[in-house]
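Record Thioesterase, 266 aa.
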Amino acid sequence: MYRPRPTAPGPTGGEDPWLLDPQVPVSRQALTLVCVPHAGAGPGVYRAFAQRLAPQIALRLVNLPGRESRIGEPALGDVPRVVQAVLPRLVPHLRGRFALWGHSMGGFVAFELARVLEARFGLRGEALVVSGCQAPQSPERTALPQRRLMTDDELWQSAAALNGIPEEVSRNRDLRELLLPTLRADFAVFETYEYRAGPTLSFPLHAFAGQEDPEASATDMKAWEQETRAACTLTELPGGHFFHLDDPGGFADRLAAVLCPRTDPR
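=>
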């Protein structure tokens, strides 16, 4: 769902437009966290997290076409196309420690990236983090609204009902017309995703659910534990579908705790 935040810096000279570096100083031993945003959003939603997680975690922001610096490009419409496009850009950056995090639509993309990275390239992440995203094999997925099939007005109102569209954006007709094609294509990515059983991941999985999220409750997310043969945690936090953006500092601390656990006080 579209929830604008300050945009991330666009690609610098020589930087791949598909994978952005937020240009925040980190340590040489930092864990790389690959971030896949939710429907309609761009890499800018992670700016606050990049600052908070430094210096022990370095973010790499997946920048899909159709948003922010790539607003003029047509958005992709299904998970396989997104994975196929992102994968070759991502692999060269994963020679050290890494993890993946996806929210809502981004959860399915991050999950499929993690699967392919391990199965095809032998790249074992330190963790997969999913938030606001039902388990892929959950039968409740079919009960979710099929927003890609809605009229423009219905789609916009449905996204707004999740607190996904700020009021100032909702009132701007020109901005709405600019964003709707990407929002619809992103919902198609989420809604047409076909889960296929395969080898389970060999690294930990951490799931986060909003207590008032109508799209992905803790019950809906419990079956994520079936996708790893390592440890799996499920944490319920206050808030709705965008609980991680309502309190980015608090959620960043949660991420740091599971990705870079410490025994000494922060």
